[in-house]
Specification:
The protein is an alpha/beta fold and 474 residues long. Helices cover 39% and strands 10% of the residues. The chain contains 14 helices and 14 strands. Strands 10-11-12-14-13 form a five-stranded parallel sheet, sandwiched between helices. Strands 2-3-4 form a three-stranded antiparallel sheet. Strands 1-6 form a two-stranded antiparallel sheet. The longest helix has 26 residues. It starts with a strand and ends in an 11-residue tail after the last helix.
Length: 474
């Protein structure tokens, strides 16, 4: 990574005040106090975790002095960073009058100018691999070695196959509901790979890949979808509403955005307990229309909770709440991994929230209750499914590294398909949870109103036995 510094009044003012240099009228030239020109500044590599940046020039270094004012500096608190930025803005114009207001100094201006509703230039999207699996600039093999890359790829394939088979199981009437993460495999697996097991995950409902990465088995997925007696939710949740205390994965909740303020509360708890962990909350762009989204981001910004948000179409909203944000190519597994890894470090070290927007495309229907061809053209779906497929793109990179081949591909897909089919057959053979479980696990002692409801239900079943499933123990 390189830090580039433009020739601005802020830089010139700092050099003049602290290092005996003044800017000349020549473009890109700095002179010292004796009038000796110093060649223009050039980019200098920045290696984390250094907390300041060396500035060099064409023939050497200006001085062995470090410049702590530039944005490459890491802060223990966002308050410190905001204060420093406000001071730099004031230094940009020495003659400007300022108001020392709450939160920092504000300059006055005689020019009336409204802040535009949106910037003319859209926020750029960070990526590592192009559409053909070629690295755009950096070689990430040092960060993502063969073992990690192969596990990421095999889990992406496993997720893809599991989704396809369970989707068809619903179409056959074997389960009541399903939704896939097709097109979002890179976000699922790569983000999970960048997190630690102690990090807490609050999903939306399309993040089964995160749970897969953490060790949730294909049999456990099937048990939940079929709602049998070994399902951890005891059959009380719709299919795909997974949850696992063992894997720090909160149970999926159908209403959108409700997990966001809950995630901030969990993150603030980790901060108070001084845990070296963060909370990752996943949500889609529809969630940004809910009040819970805005309440959650406001809560996270004010309390500086160590949390990561992942979503699509909202990167510009992070700045409004004073939250560091980045837009990432969600179909690029390496970009997702590196961005989440860096965001996690920021969230824990600086004790602050980070917002990540992943640009991706949901290839599958919204769920088995939806026909997305009614509101989007088939050729658009096929284009994203084939030309911009995240699994295929990552496979090309892994194969180019000589870590994968066609033979292993065939063996993997056949093996995973057989495992999923076997898990479904096993899940179907288990009994359903008993009727009494419907009323348990909420209160320590069952209240009278639930006793009454349970009695009424049993009487109704006796009167209409044909209207109720025979495989549920009464």
């Amino acid at each position: 990574m390189a830090a580039w510094f433009r020739r601005t009044r802020a830089v010139a003012h700092y050099l003049r005040r602290n290092n005996g240099c003044t800017p000349s009228s020549s473009r890109g030239i700095v002179v010292d106090r004796q009038g000796v020109p110093v060649p223009a500044l050039v980019p200098v590599p920045v290696v984390r975790p250094l907390e300041s940046v060396w500035i060099g020039h064409a023939t050497g270094r200006i001085s062995p002095t470090r410049f702590p004012i530039f944005l490459a500096m890491r802060f223990e608190s966002t308050r410190a960073e905001k204060h420093l930025e406000s001071l730099q803005e004031v230094e940009d114009d020495e003659d400007a009058q300022v108001l020392d207001f709450s939160g920092g100094k504000v300059t006055f201006t005689s020019k009336m100018q409204f802040i535009p509703e949106s910037s003319e230039k859209r926020v750029p999207c960070y990526r590592v691999l192009d559409d053909y699996g070629q690295p755009t600039e950096y070689d990430f093999s040092a960060q993502v070695n063969e073992e990690l890359a192969v596990k990421m790829y095999t889990d992406m394939v496993t997720l893809q196959i599991m989704d396809a088979i369970l989707y068809e199981a619903q179409r056959q009437g074997r389960i009541s509901f399903y939704l896939t993460s097709m097109g979002e495999e890179a976000i699922n697996i790569a983000s999970a790979a960048a997190l630690m097991d102690d990090d807490v995950v609050l999903p939306q409902y399309r993040e089964q890949g995160v749970l897969l990465w953490r060790g949730f088995t294909l049999q456990e997925f099937a048990n939940q979808c079929f709602g049998n007696k070994v399902d951890y939710g005891k059959g009380r949740q719709m299919p795909i509403h997974y949850g696992s205390k063992k894997h720090n994965y909160f149970t999926v909740s159908s209403p959108i955005a409700t997990q966001i303020p809950q995630a901030v509360g969990a993150a603030y708890s980790l901060k108070m307990d001084k845990k070296s962990a963060c909370v990752a909350a996943y949500f889609g762009d529809g969630s940004t229309s809910e009040g819970d989204f805005h309440a959650g981001l406001n809560f996270a910004a004010v309390m500086e909770a160590p949390e990561q948000f992942r979503s699509d179409g909202i990167v510009v909203r992070g700045q409004a709440y004073g939250i560091r944000s980045i837009r990432v190519d969600g179909n690029d597994a390496l970009a997702v991994y590196s961005a989440v890894r860096e965001a996690r470090e920021m969230a824990i070290k600086d004790q602050m929230p980070v917002l990540i927007e992943f640009l991706t495309y949901r290839v599958g229907h919204h769920s088995t209750s939806d026909d997305s061809t009614k509101y989007r053209p088939m050729d658009e779906i096929e284009h994203w499914k084939m030309s911009r497929n995240p699994v295929n793109r990552f496979r090309k990179w892994v194969e180019r590294k000589m870590w994968w081949d066609d033979k292993r591909e065939v063996e993997l897909r056949n093996n995973i398909r057989n495992q999923v089919l076997q898990a479904i057959q096993t899940a179907e053979k288990y009994e359903k949870p008993p009727l009494s479980d419907l009323f348990r696990d909420v209160y320590d002692a069952l209240p009278s109103n639930l006793h009454e409801q349970e009695s009424q239900l049993r009487e109704t079943i006796k009167r209409h036995p044909k209207d109720y499933p025979l495989d549920v123990p009464v």
